[in-house]
Amino acid sequence: MAIDGIDRLTTPVSTGGYFEGGGVLSIPAGAHNVSVRLANPYQALTCERAATVDSVTIVGQPFSPTGWRNARLKKNAPISRDSKAMVDELRSQIKNSPRGGNVGSSSWYGIPIYVVGRDQPTVRVEGPPDLPRDLQAMWEAVPLPPYAQPGLGNDQNLTLWQPSTDTYWDFWGLVRDPLTGVWRSRYGGRMTQLSRNEGHFVDPPGRLLGGSGSSIMLMAGIQRAEELRRGVIDHAVDFITVASRARDGWCWPAQRTDPGARRRSRAAIPSGARFRFPPSFDIKAYAQDPRHPLSRYALTVALAVQRYGMVVRDVSTDSPGFVAEDPVTLGHDPYPEIFEGQAPNSSGVLRNFPWRRLQVLAQPPGRGCTSDPDPD
Question: pTM above 0.90?
Fold first, then answer.
């Protein structure tokens, strides 16, 4: 498939029947010319290769356009009175991490995202004996491809999105038995009507569900490879802080926090905290200053943080940083090109990232904090 005359998506075509293909693209908003062709048609006296396209469906940005994930921040959004203390804490975590700030993008740290069609066969995903009954009911018919691969880290996360039914699944601790082929997961959640959701689990079906420790959906703030290649992220981005230094409490849009978050200091950063760069900060001019140049990746992320925010989605054992899409779903690793051969940390693509310029937003009216030592 070509968009505006440029080939952007290739998918194999099965023979002898109907086939539904697709993929993930990132293109600017606006009108575009879309064309589809058979890449290598063949004609002979006894054989002809041909394909008939009955429809082309383009699905827009997931989640509600007016929610915290997709809506631009207001220039005059109030700042938390603990903003400086939390920014100083964040800088301290980055300074004391062996690699500074990180970008989780490999199979060990990234999140696999699978987008499936309406006709994807469903399977049952088994939960542990203590899994909530309602959640197990959500896993009785999951359109999970047999070739799907969860992340290889301890969390074994995976996200699944079916645009045709507007349904989304999060998984934590997902594995497939190599002998029986049975899928099992330790926790997760399902959300219907995703296009109306802001980016976190709600009632119904349950605000404490999901594959993250905050119930913020794993796909909400992940950095997609196509976005990074294009150089524009049109939504809020996730950030991970250090568990031992996280606040024992959470703020909207988080609905819970990790058990390892136990600090009660005003400077401690709660799950759900939203950072931004001030609207008056000229990030492009900063990036071009030879005293502190930014990589193309860092500039892309910094502009997204300024426009949409940086949301603390989860905590980690020791490494603060951003989260990107796991390349296992892409068929190739785009990150050497995206990172321009640099390391995915503060000595590479995040060198000179202006952490000290960040601010923490105050909670919106009616959206407070829970178990918080000093809520706004």
Answer: no
